[in-house]
Amino acid sequence: MMVSLVICSTVPVFAQTSSSPVTVMADKSSYSDGDQMTISGTVTTQLNVPISFIIKDPSQNPVEIGQVSINPDNTYSTQVTTGGRLWSTTGTYEINVTYGSAANTAKTTFEFTSKMAGTSGNMTGTSGNQAVPEFGSTASIILAISLMSIVFYMRTRTNFKTP
Question: What are the residue ranges in the chain where pLDDT is below 70?
């Protein structure tokens, strides 16, 4: 006798709407160090929470993180000064925005030209207000050994009496 088994399943189907719950855009397609960037966009509904944004470099490392409040007309806008220590790579950067949950996200990209491109992360000179220590780790080790030697010498030294 043969038994046949029939399995019925349902798969939910979600329709995509033409309007995203959140949008994001930059005022220009390319920037250089020190440029003012305006990040703006819209949301479809007010959630009474700020919108969060993250700007990532071409390697997906965050270079700027912030939040901005939503206006009563469901728009938002904020300004960011491009450049600085974290903005050291020339290339395509990404702006990711999240509004309330991971379901309400959007992203856009822009090109960034860094004046620091081509410099290594291990700079030996001074730049701006950066301080470069005079002694490295080797000098610190030598100093520690010298101090321990002096302490050891002082503890083991015999007291001499003067006549």
Answer: 1-19, 117-140, 142-144, 147-163
Sheet containing 91-99: give its strands across.
Answer: 30-32, 101-113, 91-99, 51-56, 62-68
Number of domains in the chain: 1
pTM attached to this predicted model: 0.61
Measured from the Cβ of residue 39, the count of other Cβ atoms closer than 10 Å reads: 23
Burial (0-12, 13-18, 19+ Cβ within 10 Å), 99: buried
Q: Tokens 């798969």 identify what position?
A: 11
Task: Tell me whether residue 146 is in a domain.
Answer: no
d(CA 56, CA 36): 17
Taking the C-alpha atoms of residue 59 and residue 97, their distance in angstroms, rounded to an integer, is 18
CATH number at residue 89: 2.60.40.1930
Residue corresponding to tokens 């080797």: 138
In whole angstroms, give the CA distance from residue 10 to residue 117: 54
